[in-house]
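DATA SHEET
Item: assembly model
Revision: 1
Owner: S.N.
Input lines:
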Amino acid sequence: MMNDELAVLRKKLDDVNLDLLALINERGKLVQEIGKVKEKQGTKRFDPVRERDMLNVIADNNQGPFQDGTLQHLFKEIFKASLELQEDDMHKALLV
Amino acid sequence: MMNDELAVLRKKLDDVNLDLLALINERGKLVQEIGKVKEKQGTKRFDPVRERDMLNVIADNNQGPFQDGTLQHLFKEIFKASLELQEDDMHKALLV
């Protein structure tokens, strides 16, 4: 039946959503660790060259169906959220 | 050394980026399949109730460090890109 087909696909999508959630948070933890190392080094957190490199790697490894530009937009949003995470940690550290 | 520590963390981040890329594209393929089933059924592609449900599941399963609102923003961007993917398929089908 068509509705079963839709239900199966939706179940798969729900699983992928949870995998994505876990992976984005795993990425968040790594970015927090990187923030701490940079803090100790006195290095700036925002590194546009490193961001550009990561976006190029995304495009180079993209097998679709999303277009490079769409994926790069999504990753830029993830980068932005990650930088905010590091800034939150920084503020918390200052308040202690 | 501090720079080795940063290099190791960055390598891990690069790996997570590639996993994310693969997973977002896997999600894209599922959404394309769902679009085709809905097309056959004559169902509307955009389903705000289903989107809201998925966003609630994200918040319910979020273990951080990202806040619920940040993750929901990122997922909304992914949903938007997915809908555009379905619309592209629709246009292509019409042009054949």
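QC remark: The CA atoms of residues 58 and 92 of chain A lie 32 Å apart.
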